[in-house]
Structures are given as structure tokens and as C-alpha cells.
Amino acid sequence: MLHQPAHKAGSVERLEAEPVNAAHLRKPLYEKRRKIFPKRAEGRFRQFKWLVMLVTLSIYYLTPWIRWDRGAHAPDQAVLIDLAARRFYFFFIEIWPQEFFFVAGLLVMAGFGLFLVTSAVGRAWCGYACPQTVWVDLFLVIERFIEGDRNARMRLDAAPWTLEKVRKRVAKHAIWLVIGAATGGAWIFYFADAPLLLKRFIALEAAPAAYMTVAILTATTYVFGGLMREQVCTYMCPWPRIQAAMLDENSLVVTYNDWRGEPRSRHAKKAAAAGEVVGDCVDCNACVAVCPMGIDIRDGQQLECITCALCIDACDGVMDKLGRERGLISYATLSDYAANMALATNSGTTATDPRRMRDANGAFDEQVRQFDWRIIFRPRVLLYFGVWALVGVGMLYALVSRDRLELNVLHDRNPQYVVESDGSVRNGYMLKLLNMIPEQRRITLTLDGMPSARMRIAGHAAGEGRSFSVAVDADKITPLKVFVTLPKERLAEAEAGFFFKAEDLSSHERDIYRANFNQPGTAK
Length: 524
Prior knowledge:
Layout: H1 44-62, E1 79-82, E2 87-90, E3 93-95, H2 101-121, H3 124-129, H4 131-147, H5 150-158, H6 163-188, H7 194-202, H8 208-228, H9 230-236, H10 239-242, E4 253-256, H11 258-261, H12 268-273, H13 286-290, H14 310-322, E5 329-332, H15 334-344, H16 379-401, E6 405-411, E7 418-419, E8 425-435, E9 441-448, E10 454-457, E11 464-465, E12 467-472, E13 476-486, E14 498-504, E15 509-515
Antiparallel strand pairs: 1-2, 2-3, 4-5, 6-8, 7-8, 8-13, 9-12, 9-14, 10-11, 10-13, 14-15
């Protein structure tokens, strides 16, 4: 068994960590991948990531099992994409196919929300809430539990194959596959009644598409989260290449403050005693060891950085041991960084001297620019927020004010009209009454316009008239075959057309459709 040497109080262990994914070390795409063994970090950002992982995974896995009573005519699953019935249910909201613009609006809000977050705090989405990040974190939890932390995993990887190594690897990959299967299984429950589908799935009675979906998502989750990890973010995800357009000099990004840390030294006390200029960075590589992307944040901003801020936690822990201020690595803006660098280098005329940043008492000089939360509320961020909120308010208004009754009319194409024995002209129409609430109701269908015309509904006992009361089923489309007849001597009334009007007298909801009446010489 290997033992770590004891360290004196206040000393910092130097980790032999190499930024294998750093830009100056990265090989071409087809170069064999060098494994990354991130060390577990501890701190406020790591705790926040645990919280985000718990919340997001709970939402994903548990949501299909939430029940919502909609009555006898609709499913009781709170969130359901019912492809067979062409409905989308979200708690008390029901979306029909013709209301797909709500889904489009949500996508627009998601896009502007991503722009908003990126403009304000960089790639926070990537670092905390992206599914790839969340599942990689989950897989790393399993890996650490079975194989140990960074050093233990590195030793195991380099060790020859033994029964112990095989046992650990089989156990790890088996659990990863179970997580992948649970991920695919949870996804299919969003498209059917979850308890019923689970029974059918276990009994091998579910549709083939269900098994194919689970198999595909199991494979992708296992490969992306367990095997590829950082390669998905580096080579497959387009967002790192797009995000630059969303950032400006006042965007908060994870930054190594070399105006304070340079020149770095592993023996800072000896160097200071010898009169040398030294910064706060003791070159311990703690920031490199915890990075899941395998980069060194001290090399500056890099495409691979997902701003997970674990390097901040690692560096803050080192600063605490050394009795120095936290924030050597921190969230900072380019404008603040540039101003502090100008101060540390005397406007670029000298090498970096962190002593310029402190007063006689060793505290930071008042000229040093620190984080100010008000920088978030700048015009660009407010613009993104305004567009995002405007789309949201518009969708909310449309959702609240929408009618749950809709009338669609299709004129017969063959024949377009029929001339009866007395010279009257009859037109046929297919009407569809959409009752978009989960209860039956009676709809009054009225002919508006062409005063001499009469209407007849096929199968309706009332015969001809200009207004009928029709029973419509709950949460369904009720088709009606309707014939409109106009006397020979009143055919001139057809020139202005007419309207079908459907109205629920109890709720005052109604929908009107303007229709044309074809006759000899006008049909097309």
C-alpha cells in the first residue's frame, strides 16, 4: 500500500496533475484519448453542483409518476406527451396539435434564456445543469465509490489485470449500464401512462419502439457519460464555439487572477525571504487535479472550460491553508481583470508584480477592482431578459385567454354543389367541432348570413333549420356532415358568402368560420 508523506501544518501538497486537455498539449482528433482522473473537490460550488444534480435528476426520473386528476375523459398523468391522441398534457395545461406554437414559444424562451445566462455568467448552463454534465457527475460518483479517489483510480488503471481489478471494473460498468437503462426507461414513461407501461414493459408486452428507445438511450448515456465524458463537450457540442458571441468584457467567467498569483513559486517563503517577487500561486496543481475537462485554468480562457468552478473550490481550500485571501481563481469579468493587470504591470511596462496590488498593511489596494454584483444588470443582459420575459408574457396571455372551442370547416370537393329537382342548390361541408375541455357540453351551431338558406345535419332528427344544438364529446373532435341549401330564386344571396357559428351558451365561448357557397358558374 502506498502512503502519502505527512505534511507540516500550513503546508500544501503538490499534486502531480497534468492538464492533458490543454490547448498546447492536445493532439489531433484521432489521437488516442488520454484519461482524466478528476479529484473530488469540496466547497460551495461543489455543494451547489450536488444540489443541481439532485434537483434535475429528481425532476427527470420522478415527473412521469406524478398524478393529476383530469376526470374520466383524460389521462391522469401530470406530464404526458400522448402521441396517439395528439395531446401534450402539463398539469392543468393541455396543448392540442394546432396549438404547437406554445411549444415553439418555449423553445424560443429556452434559446434566449441560454443567451441570458451565458451573457451574465458565462457557461453556467454547461457547468451545472447540462444533462451531459449532470450524468458525468453521477457516473463519477459511482466511479469514486468503487475505485476510490484520483490517486487510487490512477494506480488501479496502471495496475495489471487481477481479480480485484476485474471485480471493480465490472461492478462500475454494470452500475453505469443500470443508470443508462433507468435513463432510457424514464424517457419512455413521458409518452404513455407510466404504471401501465412499466407492467407491459416488464411482461415484454410493450411496443417494439419502447424497447428500441430504451436500448438507444442506455447506450448513449453509458457511452457519453461513462466513456467519452469531456470529449462530448470538446468535440461534439457546438455551444463552446457559439458562446463567444454571447460574451462581452463584462461577462462573469472563471478566471485565474495572475495579477495576484504570478510569478508562482513552489517555495514561496524561501523566495520571499531571498527578496524575490512571488505571487500567491504555489503551483500546487490543485486546480488541475479537480478539473473534469483536464485543463489548467492558469493558461487563460479555453474552449474546453465549462465554468464548473471546481477549480475555485480547490484553490480556495489551498488559500485557506496558507492563510491568504480567497479568490486567486474566481468569477471575474474581462474588464476587471484587464484593469487589475494594468495596475500589476504598471500599464504593461513591467513584469507582473503583485506587490503593487497591496497597501502597506498587506491588504488589497482600493484601486483593485473586485466583483460587483451590479455588473449583472447591464443593458445587454436586460435586453435578453426583456425579450425572454416578453415571449413568456405573450405565451401566458395566449394560454389564459384561449378559447377551448374550435370550429374547422372543409367544403366538399366532389361534387362542389348539387342542383336539386326544384332548382335549389345544395352545398356539402364537413364540420369538426373541437371540444378542448375534459367534459361534455352542448354547442349551438348557427347559420349566419344568406337569410333564405337552410341547414341540415346528417343524422340529426331536427330536419332543416338555421340553428341546431349539438352534443359534443369531452376532449374530442366531433365531426358533422352538414348540407346547406339555397332556393333557386335566392341564389344571389350566395355572393356575399355566409358564416358557420359554433357557440357554448353557458361559457360564452364561440368560434366563427366564413364559408363560400358554390353554384353553377361560380364553382372552381
